[in-house]
Amino acid sequence: MITTNMADNETVECITEHERILQEIESTDTACVGPTLRSVYDDQPNAHKRFMEKLEVRIRNHDREIEKMCNFHHQGFVDAITELLKVRADAEKLMGQVTDTNRRLQDAGREVTAQTEEVIRCRIQQRNMTTTVERIQLCIPVLEMYSKLKEQLESKRYYAALKTMEQLEKVSIPRVGRYRFCQIMAENLPKLREDIKDISMSDLKDFLESIRKHSDRIGETAMKQVQQHRTFNSVVQKQDSGMGFTKPGSSLNGQTPTQNNGLAAEEDQSEEEVLTAQDLVDFSPVYRCLHIYTVLGDRETFENYYRKQRKKQARLVLQPQANMHETVEGYRRYFNQILGFFVVEDHILHATQGLVTRAFTDELWNMALSKIIAVLRTHSSYCSDPDLVLELKNLIVIFADTLQGYGFPVNRLFDLLFEIRDQYNETLLKKWALVFREIFELDNYSPIPVETEEEYKSVISRFPFHDAEIEKQAFPKKLPMSQSVPQIYVQVKEFIYASLKFSESLHRSWTEIDDMLRKSTNLLLTRTLSGCLQNLIKKPHIGLTELVQIIINTTHLEQACKYLEDFITNITNVSPETVHTTRLYGLSTFKDARHAAEGEIYTKLNQKIDEFIQLADYDWGMPESDGQASGYLMDLINFLRSTFQVFTHLPNNSNDHAAMSGKVAQTACMSACKHLSTSLMQMPLDSELKQISMGAIQQFNLDVIQCELFASSEPVPGFQGDTLQLAFIDLRQLLDLFMVWDWSTYLADYGQPTSKYLRVNPSTALALLEKMKDTSKKNNIFSQFRKNDRDKQKLIETVVKQLRSLVNGMSQHS
Predict the structure, then answer these.
(1) SS (H, E, C) 365-418
(2) Residue 141, phi then psi, degrees to nearest 5
(3) Which of 2, 379, 571, 651 could be disulfide-bonded to 325 (CB atoms 3.0-4.6 Å)?
(4) Are 565 and 474 in contact, with CB atoms under 8 Å apart?
(5) pLDDT tens, 399-444?
(6) How far is Cα 188 from Cα 745, in angstroms, rounded to an integer?
(7) CB 667 within 8 Å of CB 602
(8) 685 contacts 760 by C-beta, under 8 angstroms
(9) How confident is the model at residue 3 (pLDDT cuts 50, 70, 90)?
């Protein structure tokens, strides 16, 4: 029962499922039937059979419904077919009409279609044209800007061209960058930039070459402006002061420049156009190149290149010409080139920002300054012309002042000028040495004759001579000094003027200038003039008269030294009482020269005495004397008398000079007598002389007596008593000993202060006695002694032995 119920339940469920599947098939698209049918086969094994049965039943049901529906509408369908057949004829007629109408419509529409297509084509063209215009309007600014770029390049406006390139790249080309010509433009712009860099660098090189050529002119202009300014200031100061010390206008070579045209010349120069570095050189290439490299972002490369090239040019400029020292123009060109170089650098420093820096210019200047100082030190050492050295100094001062105006330190240049000043003084000393030598050579070494008052004033205007006694004398009269004295004094003043010229414009105080003048004047007096005087005194042709005149001259020059000091004081207005004021050493100079002249007088007197002595021709074997003095000795005495009369011309206008002149004369006279005595003493004692007769001794005694008479005649006043005769005391005692033959007294009193023959040396007496005892000659006086008196011969031998013992005792004691 239960099984039957279960089967019934399954059957009902199966029927319900089949019904659902059929409904789903009927309501679903054919493409989706597959899954529905699969569910039929997924159920019980016989389910599809029951489904097929159910499907057949459903189909039969639908067929019956279709048949019912067709039966219901069949009459209406038949009626419709009948109506359709009736309409067929009308439809064919209508079809014909429609076909005809369509044909006519097609024929009419062909023209409209053609016109429409033309309109469409025109509209397309119009749209294309509008688009093209719009595109061209976008491209025209780019093309115009590129054309402008080309024009700027052709006109060398490179900085503007770079700005145009920048605008093209950043603004214009990006708007129309899809076009080919824009791409070509974009590709060309870097090349154009490189071209601009190359062109600007070429312009810079031309500029560097240009300023190298124009440096001389630039420096000359700058120095001329500074010199004009200095001259103008100097003239204004002189006009304001209205007075002051006026220095002579003569140069060292004696030429006198015009002095009255200074203001007119300055006015003419001031009217000239003042040129600057910008007027002489076009600086636009360096500005342009700097801007170009700045825009291109390569400024550092440009700066390094510019500085490197300028350093090279600086080294070239600092190389002097080999013969630069020969003329002042060589130095001027050298200074102009250097100055022009640094004027350009100063202008670049202030006109550009950072192209050159103050540190760079200072480095260049320090390098240049060391080189300049070395070059000037070397080349100035070759200069032997003081005029050239002075012009060099003026150039250096203007050069230094000009550079100082541009802010360059120039202290080392002024320090160099002090070195050159010493060299200048050396050249002056050499020149004045020639001047002094010429003056001494042309001097006649005789007192200056003055015929008229004008001549007298002319002399004292050149030399400060004052003598009351001479002024009282009537014309014509003579001044004690010779022509060289005023000439020397004038030349010393000229030397001071020349030395002063170098000290000007050195920015030194008058105290320092005063010290310089005094030191250089001292060198002139102590070295140059003193050397010239010493050489003059030593010259062979200078005789005793000339030496006496030289003593007189040096005395007056010595007195004039105080006037030279006053002369320097008037120039510098520095009081001589200032603590650090240098004194002139002229007093010692002229004293030394005077002492040298005095010594030369003594030497020449002795030489002259020697010349007379050489004329002596004694017959040492003569049996007896001639009874009168020898001729050579009388000539010598006459010469001495006339010579000592010359000493009366020595200056004695004061007690000091009188004492000095007397001392010189006395010393000369005493020296001459001593030298004469010594020379006479040497004659009989000559080692070549082997024998002497008593007659020769007597003749020699007569000559000595004449010498004693000359000494006692007071050839030079001022000797006390027989002081001058004591010069011959040795000879007198020796001759008295032999003439009197007083050997017993000599031997007995030897060594006692009161001895009559105190001045007779035993060795001298022995030498002379041995010459007299020789018996080889038949006229020897001792031959008779040996024949007539053997005892006396023994006595002589005894005296000789005693003299030898005295000589030996003296040698042992010494």
Answers:
(1) HHHHHHHHHHHHHHHHCCCCCHHHHHHHHHHHHHHHHHHHHCCCCCHHHHHHHH
(2) -60, -35
(3) 379
(4) no
(5) 888 888 888 888 888 888 888 888 888 888 888 999 989 998 998 8
(6) 139
(7) yes
(8) no
(9) low
How far apart CA 737 and CA 765 sit, in angstroms, is 9
Tell which residue, 610, 605, 621, has the closest CA to residue 664.
605
DSSP symbol at 172:
I
Q: Please measure the distance between the N-terminal and C-terminal CA atoms of the chain and give it in whole angstroms.
A: 198
What is the Cα–Cα distance from 485 to 460, expressed in whole angstroms? 11
Short-list 494, 513, 524, CA closest to 250: 494
The CA-atom distances, in angstroms, between 565 and each of 81, 217, 523, 557, 575 are 169, 45, 14, 13, 10
CB contact at 8 A, 670 and 597: no
| pTM for this predicted structure | 0.64
For tokens 């007096």, name the residue: 525
Q: At what angle do helices 484-503 and 386-405 cross, to 10 degrees?
A: 20
Nearest 5°: the CA angle 497, 503, 505 is 120
- DSSP label at 319? P
Residues with Cβ within 8 Å of residue 443, at least 6 apart in sequence: 482, 483, 484
Q: What's the length of the chain?
A: 814
Q: Hunting for tokens 């050397």 — which residue is that?
A: 531
Alpha carbon distance 72, 752 (integer Å): 218
Phi, psi of 202 (to 5 degrees): -65, -40
Furthest-apart CA pair in the chain: how many Å?
241
Distance separating alpha carbons of residues 148 and 189, to the nearest angstrom: 13
At 732, list the tokens: 């007198």
Per-residue pLDDT tens digits for 307-364? 888 888 888 888 888 777 778 888 888 888 888 888 888 888 888 777 888 888 888 8
In this structure, the number of other CB atoms found within 10 A of the CB of residue 479 comes to 21
Q: Are residues 317 and 341 in contact, defined by beta-carbon separation less than 8 angstroms?
A: yes
